Structures are given as structure tokens and as C-alpha cells.
Amino acid sequence: MPLGHIPVLLIEDTPSLARVYTEFLKKESYRVIAVETGAAAIEQLADGAPKVVLLDLQLPDMNGMEVLKRINAQALPCAVIVITAHGSVNAAVEAMRYGAYDFLVKPFSADRLVVTVRNAVERLRLAQMVDSLEQNLGRARYHGFIGSSLAMQAVYRIVDSAASSRATVFITGESGTGKEVCAEAIHRQSQRAAKPFIAINCGAIPKDLMESEIFGHMKGSFTGAVADREGAAARADGGTLFLDEICELAPDLQTKLLRFIQTGTFTPVGGSKLEKVDLRIVCATNRDPLHEVEEGRFREDLYYRLHVIPIHLPPLREREDDVLEIARHYLAEFTAEEKKGFTQFAPETEQALRHYHWPGNVRQLQNVVRIVSVLHDGDTVLPQMLPAPLGAPGGGVAGLIAAAPVPMATVLEAVAPPPAPLPPPLTPEAIKPLWEVEKDAIENAITACEGNIPRAAALLEISASTIYRKRLAWQAEGKL
């Protein structure tokens, strides 16, 4: 739909007011679709097209906030302007939490309505420009990965470049960041995709069996070898061999692996015939490999043989709002599996997910969503449904009061911050427009973070795309 033809969906159950608002907007050449109920509004929103929504909170069949929550949950491309005769701070805060663009209290002038709608259309225009750039420059899904953060875009680009090569890839990253997913992505993106992908966890197999697991063995070569067995190297012929937790390999096996990488040949345990294979090796570790080399636990020559194309997977806490994208994906998946009714996370739950440091990374997040979907039900995941430590009871002042063997007044006095000095009285001359206060806060944060916009966004508790969008708007208006 052309940006200049974005319609206005007016949801107002008072016919006289609906006619007045429609006339105001038609004079400015806006196309207005007027409905009187929440159900009719939801039907109009079903096409997923961009719209400016003028939403009355008092509707005959439902509370207008339910319509707003649905728009927010489905991420519809709408700029919602809440209109109500029951204006209050609480209603405004609630509406903004669920993504409302602006808030109008009846009665309001024609100019106020027209200016607000015009700004909302401009916001949609800029949002679509940013979305278009993100579609061209970024990917939210990549093989098994989920996430559109700048850190993951860099990983996707390296995988694209590395996949076509025969060179060995060395993946590093904390536990749970998706190292095996990365190895599979390299394999699936490569010309070897039709051949086998064989994975071995070097830390999960006893050291005396590891050589047999990689290179195979002949019947009778050791106790329990009752038949010839093909190793991972032979099974991966033509494809990719993934060695996870490579730093766990015993020193003598490191020597044999080095020779295998150099020559492409090996001899099964107990065998005498030299076998040759054509495969690509990808390895990974959650340790610092150079530190392992310095400590003498990992051969330096093997390290340089393996560390040809390095890929470092960022921890989840450094991936901006990827945590929410991943959580929503698994919520939908596990809800379907468990036959539950969850459709969304409450805003407070999203805040808790966004601000937790995730030591177990994506694997931990997956487990958290799984626990919620198994133990609870409803349409919205509430903060109290989260397992410990995200939803751990007994934290903060309440936990101290419950556990303390001293009087409550003493506990409260201990945890209470010292009284802050009263600010000087505010004069009308000192008041700045809200957009200017917001711009100063964002620009100061970017300066403090030395131009790192994703880090500034994280500290401001907003997404990086919000900053890019606002700066585009300020540039268009000559305010930046």
C-alpha cells in the first residue's frame, strides 16, 4: 500500500462523535473506516495492512484495551491513538505499555486530532523505511538460528563466507550459545549439504574410547570389540565432521588428529590398512583455546591447524532483543506441543526476560519457556509463572522481611535509601518539550557509549531499532 494512502481506522461507538471525527479527517484527505465495536475493528485489522487506529476505550462489546493488546501481540503495523473521555494517568500508562502511539482525552480540537494523525502516519512511514532496510540488510532467521541483532548478522555473514571454503572452522562461545547449530548452518550452506553431518562431543565420551569413536576399530582390537565398527571420520566422508568441546581431547589423540587433518588419512584402532576420506572439519569449544595452549593442555600446532576461520558466538545478553524473538518462537512451539493456550508474554514478563543475564544462554531460555508451558496455562505468561531465578520468591525487601530475625522496622530502616534532597522548584521557563528531553537522553547515552547504539539502547531499556527510527524522524524534521 502506498504510504500516502494509509487509512485511518476509527473505532468509536457514539455515531455523532464518529461523524465529527470523520469530517475533520476527510478535510485533510484521509480515508476513514469507521466501526462501532471491537469485533468489527478486529475484522478490519485482519488484513495486516498498515493503519492509523483511533481507538475508543469504552466499546459496547469489549474494553478497547483488548483491541490494543491484540495489535501489540500480533505486531500489526499500526500506530494506535487512544481516545477516551475517562482520561487518567493510569489509563495512559497502561495504553503506552501496550504500544499506543498517543493518547487523546475528549473533548479535543480538530487541529489536535489532525496533527496527531499526521504524526502517526509519519511514524508508520519511517517504521516501514526502517523495516525495509532491515529486510534488505538483516535476517531474523538463518538455518537453525533465531535473532536479528547486529551481533548475529555478523555471524550469519561469516557463515555465508566460510561455507563455500574447505578451510577448518573453529567456533567459540559460552555453553548454550548454539555452537552445534552454527556448525550445522555451515554444513547446510556448503556444497557438502547433501552429504552426512556427523557430530561428536569430545567431552562426553570416555578418553579410552574416543579414538575408536573418531577413527573406528577392528574386531578384537580391545575388550568389547566384537565386530568391525566404522568411526565418525568414515561416516562423514564427503560431508562435515563436527568435533564439539575439542579442548577435552587427550594429548595423544591430539597428535593423531593433527596427522589426520594434515593427510586426510587414518588407521582404525587395531587395523593396519590406511584409509582416506574427504571431509570438512568444524570444531568448537566453550573455553579460551589460546589459554589452553598457554597452559600446555592443547597442542599449539593443532590449534593453528584448526583455527583457520574463527567464529565467535555472542552470549544471549549481548544480542539486544533477540531474547524476546527466541522466547516467542519457543512459546508458540511448546504451547502447541503441550496443548496450552499461551499467545503472548505480559510486558512485565518481557522486561524480566530482557534484563536477566542468561548464564546458560539460549539453552537456558529454551528450558525456562518449556517449564512455563508445562506447569502453567492461560493466554498470557505472567512474571510469577517464570521459574527461579527469574521468578524466584523471597527476593528484595519482602524476602528480607520474611527471613529476618529482627523487627520489621529495623529491616526497613536498613534497606531504605537515604532521603534525597528536594529538587529546586521548576519554573515554566525551564520546561523543555518532551521530544527534546527524549532526544537529549538518547544522544547523551550514545555519546557515553562511544557511538555504540545497541549498547546505548540496552542501557536505556529500548530496542536499537527504536533509536534508529527516532533519529530518522528527527533528521526528517530538522531536529538533529
UniProtKB/TrEMBL annotation:
Residues 7-121 form the Response regulatory domain. Transmembrane segments: none annotated. Residues 145-374 form the Sigma-54 factor interaction domain. It comes from the Bacteria. Pfam families: AAA_lid_14, HTH_8, Response_reg, Sigma54_activat. InterPro entries: AAA+_ATPase, AAA_lid_NorR, CheY-like_superfamily, Homeodomain-like_sf, HTH_Fis, P-loop_NTPase, Sig_transdc_resp-reg_receiver, Sigma_54_int. The modification 4-aspartylphosphate is found at residue 56. GO terms for molecular function: ATP binding; sequence-specific DNA binding. The keyword Phosphoprotein applies. One of its GO terms (biological process) is phosphorelay signal transduction system. This is Sigma-54-dependent Fis family transcriptional regulator. It comes from Azospirillum griseum.
